[in-house]
From TrEMBL:
This is Two-component system response regulator. InterPro entries: Bact_response_regulator, CheY-like_superfamily, Sig_transdc_resp-reg_receiver. PANTHER family: PROTEIN PILG, STRESS RESPONSE REGULATOR PROTEIN 1. It comes from Ottowia oryzae. The modification 4-aspartylphosphate is found at D54. The keyword Transcription regulation does not apply. Residues 5-121 form the Response regulatory domain. The keyword Transmembrane does not apply. It holds the Pfam family Response_reg. It comes from the Bacteria.
Length: 124
């Protein structure tokens, strides 16, 4: 599998670190953002192939962050996978409405994370 540039947006340092370790073990380039504003500042420079975005974050939540990124023509086709500690049907539906491709429930495994990269990161 080719190396992908992956942006992980999560306000939890633990989640960011574990995602970074798993993705790097999978041979991917990883950029981290601690909230929606941080992500919006970095996404242009990072040019990620795939974005993992936490839903519950301060200031700008994952839905808002996803919607803003998707509104930018440059990133409208960039896959976004939402991360949440809740496994609710409503959350999944709302994620789809703002343009996310999929949904991972935290805590995720290394396999789940790498499988999502393989599944969605191949469009570039």
């Amino acid at each position: 599998m080719a190396q992908k540039r992956v942006l992980v947006i999560d306000d939890s340092n633990t989640i960011r670190r574990s995602a970074e370790i798993f993705l790097k073990q999978g041979g991917h380039e990883v950029m981290l953002a601690e909230d929606g504003f941080d992500a919006l500042a970095k996404v242009n420079d990072a040019q990620p192939d795939l974005i993992f975005c936490d839903i519950l974050m301060p200031r700008l939540d994952g839905y808002q962050t996803c919607a803003i990124i998707k509104r930018n023509e440059k990133f409208s086709s960039t896959p976004i996978v939402m991360l949440s500690s809740k496994d609710g049907v409503f959350d999944k539906a709302r994620g789809r409405m703002v343009g996310s491709q999929d949904y991972l429930t935290k805590p995720f495994t290394k396999d789940q994370l790498l499988q999502a990269v393989e599944q969605f990161g191949s469009s570039s």
